[in-house]
Design goal:
Layout (H helix, E strand, L loop, with lengths): L6 E6 L3 H16 L4 E6 L11 E4 L2 E4 L5 E2 L4 H8 L6 E3 L6 E5 L2 E4 L5 H6 L5 H8 L15 H9 L1 H13 L11 H4 L1 H8 L3 H7 L12 E4 L4 H10 L5 E2 L4 E7 L2 E6 L2 E5 L1 E4 L3 H8 L4 H8 L3 E11 L12 E3 L8 E5 L1 H4 L9 E8 L11 H16 L8 E12 L5 H13 L4 E3 L9 H21 L4 E2 L1
Parallel strand pairs: 1-2, 1-14, 2-10, 7-16, 14-20, 20-21
Antiparallel strand pairs: 3-4, 5-9, 6-9, 7-8, 11-12, 12-13, 15-18, 15-19, 16-17, 17-18
Helix pairs in contact: 1-10, 1-16, 2-16, 5-6, 11-12, 12-15
The protein binds flavin-adenine dinucleotide (FAD).
Length: 467
């Protein structure tokens, strides 16, 4: 039996990052035969954070993320490790995505020259400007640049406005004029350095695709399954819901974490809260850390899932969905034809469509109440898809108020400042969507790294860092 003293860990937040961190702490401690205890403190009454799945009227409704990308392997690896391989579900059908431009949906061209030449999304002038990219020299090395500045410089204003801006800002719910290229799409800058985007794409060897996988995957029954499976791997009573953490301080070589009337002590603390929530928690303890955390802006979004009965829509929309450039003046940023994109998301013959509203600079619409948000989403969908007076049988609104971290220009410098603040606090680890990636695979990577750092820090009583 291992008789070494127990190391105590507290994880703040039971989103995918915090749950992964807790799971990884146990896994690693077991492998290293270390004696540990872990408590996860979660303010809300449920686990999963932004991952929330509901089953209603035979439909699977995702309130937050609906899938994860597979070219970053971390989510797929975790799903397999948790024994959920057989529940993996890929996309199906026509992968067409359209752009709303001047009142019409125009298909994004496939990665073929003919499709690009024939598409009606761009003018001939716009297409010629995009082709010019092949001959452009790399721009000057700058510390950071906005996604908009980069796209306009390389591909011209039309490509930026009609495609690159709305497509790349989607996952961050961001404003491309503010988004940091280096923090969000560093691979684009790297492609430029290597001779340009067109050259890099032509040189790129086709990846050998795994026939079992599609670019986006989800789980049968929804992503809530991942949260359930992770939670089940933790010892009972590990996660305490309804436990909002209000403060954190270090005294006598230990961390003391206040949640309601309870104060817990720990050797290391993994903070898997969004940066704006953590800023409040550490406000009285380290003003500088709290200040830098507050510099990370957050945007509000909402998702509206609408379930239509068979025959309610004049025609079933084809493809995966559409995106809406900012200039088109809509609250809707994008919509996914969920029942066409993934199997078994709606009862037979029904159409499930999910609209995505808000985002940086367009957040005001999320302040309205649920029925107003639903009305706006349905009104815009009606206009865009021409679905007539069809009324959904079921509408479900999820609001994400100041929940989407924005990686604006200067984000990486902010992370360096955060890291130097944290260096002064042995055993404090920052993890999650606010720092090095918002996607589920990034959060899982961050949670795993945070666990490894916390274990090392608790053993050595050394500084930990930001993951
Ligand atoms: C609408 C939407 C759609 C998205 N779609 C996708 C997608 O399709 N694919 C993808 O990969 N990613 C997507 N994302 C991003 C992804 O879902 C998130 O970045 C990720 O789930 C964040 O996980 P997290 O654990 O870092 O943070 P969170 O999920 O925010 O978890 C943090 C937890 O901390 C808790 N908390 C806050 N304050 C306190 C406190 N004081 N004390 C205790 N607990 C506290 C919160 O209640 C929450 O449970 C989407 C996000 C949104 C909002």
């Amino acid at each position: 039996m291992n008789t070494a003293a127990e190391s105590r860990f507290v994880v703040l937040g039971a989103g995918i990052t915090g749950l992964t961190a807790a799971y990884e702490l146990h896994k690693k401690a077991q492998a290293e035969r270390r004696n540990i205890s872990v408590v996860v403190l979660e303010s809300s009454s449920r686990v999963g954070g932004k991952i929330v799945t509901e089953s209603r009227d035979g439909a699977v409704i995702e309130g937050g993320p609906d899938s994860f990308i597979t070219y970053k392997p971390q989510a797929l690896e975790l799903v397999r490790e948790l024994g959920l391989s057989l529940d993996l579900v890929g996309t199906e059908g026509d992968p067409k995505v359209s752009v709303l431009w001047e009142g019409r949906l125009k298909a994004i061209p496939q990665r073929r020259l003919l499709s690009f030449l024939l598409c009606d999304l761009f003018t001939w002038k716009g297409k010629a400007r995009m082709a010019l990219e092949y001959f452009l020299k790399p721009g000057p090395e700058t510390l950071d640049e906005s996604l908009a500045a980069f796209a306009r410089r390389r591909l011209g204003p039309e490509a930026y406005e009609r495609l690159i801006g709305p497509m790349l800002s989607g996952i961050y719910a961001g404003d491309p004029q503010q988004m940091s290229l280096a923090a969000t799409f560093p691979q684009l800058r790297e492609m430029e350095r290597q001779g340009g985007l067109a050259r890099a794409m032509l040189k790129r060897k086709a990846r050998k695709a795994d026939p079992e996988l599609t670019t986006f995957m989800t789980l049968r029954g929804g992503l809530g399954r991942l949260v359930e499976a992770l939670t089940l791997k933790l010892p009972p009573q590990t996660v305490r819901t309804g436990a909002p953490v209000s403060s954190l301080r270090r005294r006598g070589g230990q961390w003391h974490i206040q949640a309601g009337e309870t104060v817990l002590s720990a050797d290391a603390v993994i903070c898997a809260l969004p940066a704006n929530a953590l800023a409040q928690v550490v406000g009285d303890y380290d003003f500088e850390l709290s200040h830098v955390l507050r510099e990370i802006p957050f945007a509000s979004t909402a998702t509206v899932s609408m379930l239509f009965e068979p025959g309610a829509l004049k025609s079933e929309p084809s493809g995966f969905g559409f995106i809406v450039p900012r200039s088109q003046g809509k609250a809707t940023v994008a919509a996914t034809y969920t029942s066409s994109k993934f199997p078994n998301r709606a009862p037979a013959g029904h159409a499930l469509i999910r609209s995505f509203l808000g985002g940086a600079g367009r957040d005001a619409c999320v302040d309205a109440d649920d029925s107003q948000i639903a009305r706006q989403a349905r009104g815009e969908l009606k206009e865009i898809l021409g679905i007539g007076e069809a009324h959904p049988r079921l509408t479900r609104v999820f609001r994400w108020v100041r929940a989407n971290p924005q990686y604006t220009v200067g984000h990486q410098l902010r992370l360096k400042r955060l890291d130097s603040c944290v260096q002064g606090h042995p055993g404090l680890v920052l993890a999650g969507c606010s720092y090095f990636g918002v996607g589920i695979p990034d959060c899982i990577r961050s949670g795993r790294e945070a666990a490894a750092k916390a274990l090392r820090a608790a053993a050595a009583r050394a500084p930990a860092g930001v993951c």
